[in-house]
Write a structure and sequence with these properties.
Length: about 260
């Protein structure tokens, strides 16, 4: 009994280490191919359009409603302390530092990440990747690398759109509906938001999230079992792992940024 448990534990540990090793090799190969891929920027541009433009609707609508909620909740919270004029600063810092990069990354993982995993998984199931290898075409360089860099570029842009639309939503609720002074709303925001510490940290987070979510989506599709059930399972696993990775990386990055 004990021997069989130890054997099962050893086999699962060995498989887990092998999977991590394969993922690390694939990640470094994608990084090493960056120069080659960026020379053919048309491929990357098409992926930025596919991943970013098609995710723009859900990002915009979600950002607007998050801004509505922040404006409403922030006003009633600040009003208790006589600081309703700082509503613009509260909305801007909440979106630029945290909610913009994190929520945009979660939405990106559910929309674009799942699409990437399904697309690569179907290529694996249809033996298209194997056919490329038979023609001496590296599928990592031709298929995965442009999608990887397209996702890395698209997510920071989507996070910026999310934050901008969210601030507009906070303005609509706080100034136009509730009646907060517009001058105080914008002046407090302008005086309290630091370009490098606040906006810069949000950009760094969105870039890291873009790398993590896009790579996880591509990896899950690349190693998916070539069956309908395997592709469906890989797509589900991609969204779950990507979402958990975003939340975990957000905590680590926030702790590092506030400690500097």
């Amino acid at each position: 009994m004990i021997t069989s448990l130890l054997a099962a534990l050893g086999a699962s540990t060995r498989q887990m280490l092998a999977d991590w090793g394969f993922a690390a090799r694939l990640f470094f190969k994608l990084l090493s191919l960056s120069g080659v891929v960026l020379k053919r920027f048309g491929l990357v541009r098409d992926q930025v359009h596919f991943l970013g433009n098609y995710s723009l609707a859900i990002i915009t609508v979600s950002g607007l409603f998050v801004g509505f909620v922040l404006g409403l909740q922030g006003y009633y919270t600040l009003q208790r302390y006589g600081s309703a004029e700082a509503l613009g600063l509260l909305v801007a810092l909440s979106l630029v530092r945290e909610l913009g990069p994190v929520v945009a990354a979660l939405l990106y993982a559910g929309r674009a990440g799942a699409s990437l995993t399904a697309e690569i998984g179907l290529m694996r199931a249809g033996e298209q990747l194997t056919a490329l290898e038979m023609m001496a075409v590296d599928p990592v360089q031709r298929i995965l690398a442009p999608r990887f860099w397209g996702g890395v570029i698209a997510l920071p842009l989507l996070a910026a759109v999310f934050s901008a639309v969210g601030i507009l939503g906070g303005y609509v609720v706080g100034v136009l509906l509730i009646g907060v002074d517009a001058g105080s709303f914008w002046s407090q925001m302008q005086g309290g938001v630091d370009v490098f510490k606040d906006v810069g940290n949000g950009i760094i987070k969105s870039v890291v999230f873009g790398v993590a979510v896009t790579f996880i989506a591509l990896l899950q599709g690349y190693v998916a079992k070539p069956t309908p059930e395997g592709v469906a399972s890989a797509t589900t696993r991609s969204v779950v792992v990507s979402s958990l990775s975003v939340l975990g990386l957000d905590f680590i990055l926030t702790a590092m940024m506030f400690s500097i």
